[in-house]
Amino acid sequence: MEQRMHRSGVINIATISAGFEKSDFLVREEKGHRVFFDFFEEAFNYIANKGYSRMPDEEESEWIQLMKKAHLSIKGGTRYNSGTLLIVLSRPVDLSQINENRNKKVVEACIEGNSITAENESDHKLV
């Protein structure tokens, strides 16, 4: 029987992987952001300063198994080098911030040069 760890609340995960031509270490985080580093310490400090922390061993192991299963499900393998997954980190998601942003409606937007300015209906603040 398989035992699974359950964390309360919503989380974002980030990973640090190794084995790339461009650089030795890769941090993958939310919204598909990828940042390469030459040293593991730089990669870890970068993601730790964004509020991520290492998962407990059991939970991290579960995520690693899930990602391996996902990669193996692609016929012929993944299109890109996924490297060797070293660690999985997480941070809680602030749902109040997400809900606050969802409730804002943009009523006016203006493109000036290379920037876009928009005003919210609810608080008339620029976004």
Q: Mean pLDDT, nearest integer?
A: 79
Quantity of strands, as a count: 7
Seen as an oligomer or otherwise, the chain set is: single chain
What is the H/E order? EEEHEHEHEE
For the termini, the CA-CA separation is 50 Å
The number of helices is: 3
- Biggest beta sheet attributes: 5 strands, antiparallel
Question: Which blocks of ≥5 consecutive residues have pLDDT under 50?
Answer: none
Shape: globular
Helix content: 25-40%
Strand content: 25-35%
Element layout with pairings:
Blueprint: E1 11-18, E2 25-28, E3 34-37, H1 40-48, E4 53-54, H2 57-72, E5 84-92, H3 95-103, E6 106-112, E7 115-120
Antiparallel strand pairs: 1-2, 1-5, 2-3, 4-5, 6-7
What labels would you give this structure?
globular, 127 residues, two-stranded antiparallel ribbon, single chain, alpha+beta, 7 strands, 31% strand, five-stranded antiparallel beta sheet
Explain what this protein looks like in three dimensions.
The protein is globular, with a radius of gyration of 19 Å. The strands form 2 sheets. The chain has a 5-stranded antiparallel β-sheet, sandwiched between helices. A two-stranded antiparallel sheet has the order 6-7. Helices cover 27% and strands 31% of the residues. The chain has 3 helices and 7 strands, in the order βββαβαβαββ.
